[in-house]
Write a structure and sequence with these properties.
alpha/beta; 11 strands; 418 residues; single chain; globular; six-stranded mixed sheet
């Protein structure tokens, strides 16, 4: 049994990838503080949220249990008391049940080394990228992962803190670590800080393998390049280190190995939902048409036309799916003839399409839509914008599948694990 902890777990791309490759695995713990992601994760991976187990608790007792956690409604900052009070009682009950069902430790800032079991094979960490991304730089944010920046990308150092606490207590560290983030983490401005992180891991007995991997090479029609770092605990055993590095040299995912390990190869025709006779797809397409403003006209002019007026798909790949489609640049636009007053002649990718471009199945998305809780009489938890944000914050499942195949193979062939 391959035992895993997902930190910054989001909607669970790691768990989805391990499931897809038929790994014998257990997600021992998750770590996620965004209430939108917490509930979506449970719906996707547990099929439902079992609130019946907590019927004996009153609404006040559920609120009291949730108050011990540091929760966020936007993934950026902690919820204040006023925001928490506005969450309906039935949604709080769903949230608490989801936390329990997914063994969620919630905020990484509240976790210490003693909370991590000593028999973990893999710990994954995909800490926030906002302070590392080029978009952040454009807005004057160049703090990156500096230790003293105290920003969202600085959550990396919370991972360091937890591992160091385990290390000084002589507790067994996870055998494998997997980092995912934007490739800008490898750039010159962040070199000193990233080298600091790599050195910390090496001092604890890990060796590091860094990849720059693009989703388009793993069977997903999206140009999305990300940095991945596999860290393997060798405890300074040179013989094992050499065997592992030889393995990576012979099975390089930046080369032909990507094609060999990919599970499938999808085209945009497999993902874009262009059959508007289907009322669900039509409703989602209608909701993805923005208002006709000068800024939206600029988006039309500047971005790839994925589908033309005749319904022909013109591109092989979309550009990176980010947390927002109503931006410039975006993933691409689609001519959509269902003209409405004050609306554009095009639409954006729908949330369903964004989920599928991240490697999730359509059924995964449908589980969220079918169980979308009411926040008010007229508003549900998951708007189009929130769903796209969940997708954009995730990791492409198919890339993770190849990485996990390598990790599991190393674990078996070099460490002799079953």
């Amino acid at each position: 049994m391959f035992r895993v902890i997902e930190t910054f777990s989001g909607i669970g791309s790691q768990a989805k990838a391990l499931e897809n490759i038929n790994a014998d695995f257990e997600i021992v713990k998750t770590v996620e503080w965004d209430i939108n992601a917490i509930i979506a994760y449970c719906l996707i991976h547990k099929n439902k949220i079992d609130t019946d187990k907590y019927r004996e608790f009153s609404d006040d007792e559920i609120s009291e249990k949730l108050n011990k956690f540091t929760l966020s409604s936007d993934g950026k900052k902690a919820m204040n008391k006023q925001s928490f009070r506005r969450v309906p009682a039935d949604v709080k009950r769903m949230l608490y049940a989801a936390i329990e069902q997914t063994n969620n430790m919630v905020s990484i800032t509240d976790i210490n080394g003693n909370d991590i079991p000593g028999n973990i094979d893999l710990l994954t960490y995909s800490f926030p990228c906002q302070d590392l991304s080029l978009c952040g730089c454009w807005h004057g944010n160049k703090s990156g992962i500096a230790r003293d920046a105290h920003n969202r990308s600085g959550m990396l150092w919370e991972v360091e803190r937890i591992l160091k606490e385990m290390f000084v207590q002589n507790r067994r560290l996870p055998r494998f670590l997997l980092m995912e983030n934007v490739t800008n983490i490898l750039s010159k401005p962040h070199e000193l800080d990233f080298n600091d992180w790599k050195s910390t891991l090496e001092n604890m007995g890990y060796i590091n393998k860094i990849y720059r991997l693009n989703a388009k090479n793993f069977g997903i029609p999206q140009k999305r390049e990300r940095a991945y770092m596999i860290s393997i605990l060798c405890e300074h055993d040179k013989k094992i280190e050499n065997r592992i590095m030889n393995y990576f040299n012979e099975h390089n995912l930046e080369k032909e190995e990507a094609e060999r390990l990919r599970r499938r190869k999808l085209s945009l025709s497999d993902i874009l939902r262009l059959n508007y006779k289907n009322p669900i797809y039509k409703e989602e397409a209608d909701a993805s048409k923005p208002n006709n403003t000068p800024s939206r006209q600029k988006i039309w002019e500047d971005n790839d036309k994925l589908v033309d007026e005749k319904g022909n798909i013109n591109e092989i790949f979309v550009n990176t799916v980010t947390t927002k489609q109503d931006r410039n640049p975006n993933s691409g636009v689609i001519v959509y003839k269902n003209y409405k007053h004050n609306k554009t002649k095009f639409r954006y990718l729908t949330p369903r399409e964004c989920f599928m471009l991240m490697g999730f199945d359509e059924a995964d998305f449908q589980k969220i839509i079918d169980n979308n809780p009411k926040m008010t009489k007229v508003r549900r938890m998951y708007s189009n914008e929130k769903l796209i944000k969940l997708a954009g914050n995730s990791i492409v499942v198919d890339v993770l599948e190849a990485l996990f195949k390598q990790i599991i193979k190393i674990n078996h062939e070099i460490f002799g694990a079953d």
